[in-house]
Predict the 3D structure of the following.
Amino acid sequence: MSIPKTVVDQLLRENEHHECPDSPEICVRIRAIAELPTRFGDYQVVAFQNNYDNKEHAAFVHGNVFEQSGVPVRIHSECLTGDAIGSLRCDCRDQLIDTLEKIGKMDRGIVLYLRQEGRGIGFANKIRAYQLQDAGADTVEANEMLGFRPDERDYGIAAHMLGSLHVNSIKIMTNNPDKVRDLQNHGVEIVERIPVVVPPTVRNIGYLETKARKMGHLLDLEQNDEARDASDRAVAAGAGAGKNRP
């Protein structure tokens, strides 16, 4: 069961003239809600807009999450190269698909999709960071060489989006302890952390090791060669299949 139409209408009315005088920089409004059947199950898509910078964010909602507790939630920051193009430099697309599939089989859950490309530094700077990585820097070093922190993301927007949907508490689907702390600092009640387990590949193992070693991500990268080879073959098979698509 999705969010009922009466509740959808209520949420749209609440947000029509919504303002945040105490923190306008993270004030987001619900602008529209529609049904969204997907290959991962039936979802509703909720379009949010930040009044401060006009960035648009999305919530993909499965089931009725209104005034519910312990809702499984994945907060996913935009990764154009991974999510849309299938880049093998990161595991972003794999994590997104994994959580959409899992939530699609649950009674309810949410994937929040935030426009925070490149850990919050923007697309052009992300590609500049790639250039530095091509020359030997890791992801943390590349960001710092460009004058940024290793991670510039802020989850106040996500907290506001969950509040707008009247979600009481969540089970956060993440490997990032900083994300957990940031959400809690913004008033989100987290009752459980659900690990996102995506097998590493030869192409992204260095990226993942940097996340674990320098950023404290809770990753189990101990995987035998046979399992990693199988993961790499699956990636290669998917890339080959893509060549035959119209």
In short: Confidence is low (pLDDT under 50) at residues 223-236, 238-246. The chain has two domains: 5-116+153-198, 201-246.
